[in-house]
């Protein structure tokens, strides 16, 4: 027969609850830092994509004398940018200026492209991502100027 002593060894309920609370706190800190690292990785990917797009567009301009077509409307005028961007990508990939398609940013939105190459007062053309909030012209956006004027 097993004898039970008056004082049993083990953890009390309060001790177990304290351990569970500490584990929960530590896991929330780890998850927060993982989300931060994930966001940084998405921005790095978007920057690399946009830099590659800029290079392809400049080579296209050297060959054709103008930037790639945009379509009927400004893809930068929509929040988030719309699919008129695919016409630009088709011209870059079809012409051999890019090895593959870059249709959307890491957040699942189309990249924005505003083609003002020699057809407006400013002449400034750029490619951008609306960022995580999916709204153009906010603090989380990233954009690169492709050309500053008709002379570029």
Automatic annotation (TrEMBL):
Pfam families listed in its UniProt record:
N_methyl, T2SSG
Which SUPFAM superfamilies does the entry link to?
Pili subunits
Q: Which GO terms describe its cellular component?
A: type II protein secretion system complex
Q: Which GO terms describe its biological process?
A: protein secretion by the type II secretion system
Question: Has UniProt tagged this entry with the keyword Membrane?
Answer: yes
Where does the record place the Type II secretion system protein GspG C-terminal domain?
37-140
Where does the source fall among the domains of life? Bacteria
Regions that span the bilayer: 12-34
Q: Which UniProt keywords apply?
A: Membrane, Methylation, Transmembrane, Transmembrane helix
Note whether Glycosyltransferase occurs among the keywords: no
PANTHER family reported in the protein's UniProt record: GENERAL SECRETION PATHWAY PROTEIN G (PTHR30093)
Q: What is this protein called?
A: Type II secretion system protein GspG C-terminal domain-containing protein
- Source organism phylogeny: Bacteria, Candidatus Nomuraibacteriota
